Each structure stands twice: as structure tokens, then as C-alpha cells.
Structure of Multiple sugar transport system permease protein:
Amino acid sequence: MNVQPAGSPGAAPSPERLPERRGSSLSSKTSEGLWGYLFIFPQLLGLVAFSLIPLVSAFVISMMNWDGMGTKQFVGFQNFIGQLRDEEFRIALVNTVYYTILSVPTGIVLAMLVAVGLNRVRGKILYRLIYFMPNITMSVAVAVVFMWLFNADFGLINMYLKQWFGITGPSWLTDSRYVMPSIAMLSVWMGLGGNMVLFLAGLQGISRSYYEAAEIDGAGKWQQLIHITIPLLSPTTFFVTIMSIIGSFQVFDQSFVMTSGGPAKASYTLVYHIYETAFADFTFGKSTAAAVILFLMILSLTLFQMKMSRRWVHYED
């Protein structure tokens, strides 16, 4: 029988050394874990202080009758019931949904078309810069400029409509039929650059081999767009759709600056309703209840979209 020395290459590890190695491995993992928690601690602290605690506080205040100064009185779900029965809340909800229907599909389609066009030309970096600039401009400043553009008497839009087409432009911001489409046009223009950059990144991630195979099979540009580009851009489209809907339900700046919710509350949105309920009526409990309802609506829509995405979002293998 051959017995190998303890120090030979084929020898089994000494039983006495196994606990030492395991202990060393566990100590190394513990040290790495501690360093990981140390690095994420500042972000975790900010998340708790500025997100989780305010979120819990909002749910608590939504069940209180509070004017922001005096004592709080617990009223349960009365604030939620009152908001759902409130005519102004229903008007704001209808206006917000209408604005979402106007702005989100239009913004996504235009951003995708612009991205497809820029993906085929030279100087992409310069064009990306030009298109992205409105996205980083202050929304209040943009709204003030568009107030002048949409002015019914001396605005540039109506002036060019009259000179070029002989059309008398409408009262964009003072007619209840046109005020929400006007705000939607402003929002589409502002968000076009950001969505375009996302679509452009998605386009550059599509392998060129798909288009080469389609060209060999005789597929034209339109067929390539329908059968290759759009399906393989579906993950980007899904992300842009979710973010656009969330942003559209939170529209406030444009309505506040350009129309103050008018005319006749035609541009009165949910966030504007939350603002007025809190800082005009000083009923913070009702205002927070409306904010919680808005949060639950956005959460429900997002979860629904994530569930439905399994049917139409295609990931490249």
C-alpha cells in the first residue's frame, strides 16, 4: 500500500487546516460585506431621510385633518373619500388623463422618428446636443417663452399661420378647447431631446447583422423599420413609455405659469389641485390624500405596464 507524504501534491488536505481556511474565507466575505455597506451608507441615508420617511409621513398626514400649523386630528379615510367625491379632483383627473393621451404617444413617436433619422446621418453628437438642449432648460423659462409664442394677438405662431396659410390662429391659452393641446405641444418639445437620446442609444445597440440579412433577402427600409427596428427597440420604448406617463401625471409647471389652471379649469391638473389644496386652502390632510391617490394611480399604471410588457417587449438574443 502506497502512503503519500502530507506535503506531496496528491496528498489530501490536513483536517486540522480546513477550519482555518473556512474561517479565513468567512472573514474575507464579512470584510467585503462591511466595506459594501460602508460605500452605500451615504446613499442609503439619503434614501431613508428624503424618500422613505417623507413617504411614511405622507401616508400618516393623509389620514389627518391638519392646516399645517395647529394640532392634527385623525379622520381615517375621510380625506380619501372626500377627494374621490370632490368635483375639482375629478376635473383635474380628467384633464391630466387628457394631457397624457395628447403628449405621451406623440412624444414617443416623434422621438423615435428623430432618433432613426439621426442614426443615419453624420454629426450625431452635434445634433444630439441641439435636440437635448430644451431638456435641460428650466421649465418655467420655457413656459414664459411659449406664452409669447402662443399669444393670440402678437404671438409668432398665429403670425406665421396668417402670413403663410392665411389662417387666423386660435386663442391658444385662453380658449378651453386649445389650452391643453398647447401645453401638450410645449411638453413634447421639451421632452423630445431626452427621449431621442434614449432611442438613439437603443438603435446603436441593435446588431448590424439583422439589417444585412434583411438587405440580402430584399427587404426595403420601411420593412426593416417595421420588422427589425421597432421590435428590437421595444425595451427602450417600454422604458420611455413608463417614464413619460409618470412625468405626464406630474405636470404642473406649464399649467401654473402659463394659465394658472384656466380658463375655467381647463388646464387644472392633479398636481395643481394638490398645490392649491395645500397652499391656498391650507388643508394639508386633503392635499396629502390627493397626493397618495396620485401615487397609487401611477404605481398601478406602472405595474400594469410591466405585466403587459411580456406580450410586446422583445429582447435581443
